[in-house]
Amino acid sequence: MNKNFSSFIPFVLYSLFILVIPLIFLIYEAFHTNLSPLFISVLLSAAGQSFMQASVSTVLAVLAGIPAGFLLVIYGGRGKNTIISLLLVTYVMPGIIMALGIISLFGYSSRFWEIIYGNIAYNAPLIAVLSFATGSSTSLPEVYSAKILGAT
Predict the structure, then answer these.
(1) What is the rounded distance in angstroms from the CA atom of residue 45 to the CA atom of residue 145?
(2) What is the pLDDT of residues 89-145, one digit of tens each?
(3) CB contact at 8 A, 114 and 106
(4) Core vs surface per residue 71-93: b (16+ CB within 10 A) or e
(5) Residue 93: which region, alpha, beta or left (left: phi > 0; alpha: psi -120 to 50)?
(6) How far apart are CA 115 and CA 103, in angstroms?
(7) Is residue 89 within 8 Å of 147, Cβ to Cβ?
(8) CB contact at 8 A, 57 and 123
(9) 102: which of 11, 45, 62, 118 fits an S-S bond (Cβ 3.0–4.6 Å)?
(10) In Å, how far from its chain's centre is CA 94?
(11) How far apart are CA 32 and CA 144, in angstroms?
């Protein structure tokens, strides 16, 4: 047996017995049970609510993050690296700390806009830093070329 293949066998067995086979049983049981119309309506309602929350929080996070990243590209003063580091603090701390902060701010009720706020507080800084990285890596000749070609 090849040495590389023999070291790969435990990973394949682990993946097969721990991950793949239970997933196959789960999918089989999910589609071969008798579902009541009430359960289906609740399931579709939850899926619709999740899709609505994801859509609204994505749009609002992009609307907050891209202008912040653009302002970071324009800003040339002191403390720019500190601002970027502070924007990335949400990704350094565990998610449970973010959740506890939002719970302490709003309480235990999980209303629509509180969940949206939690998603925006977590995702908008990342969008700001990514748009800053994209804007700062664009060179001046590229900007001039874009203006010549008609960009505004």
Answers:
(1) 50
(2) 888 888 888 888 888 888 887 788 888 988 898 899 999 999 998 888 877 788 788
(3) yes
(4) ebbeeeeeeeeebbeebeebeee
(5) beta
(6) 10
(7) no
(8) yes
(9) 118
(10) 14
(11) 61
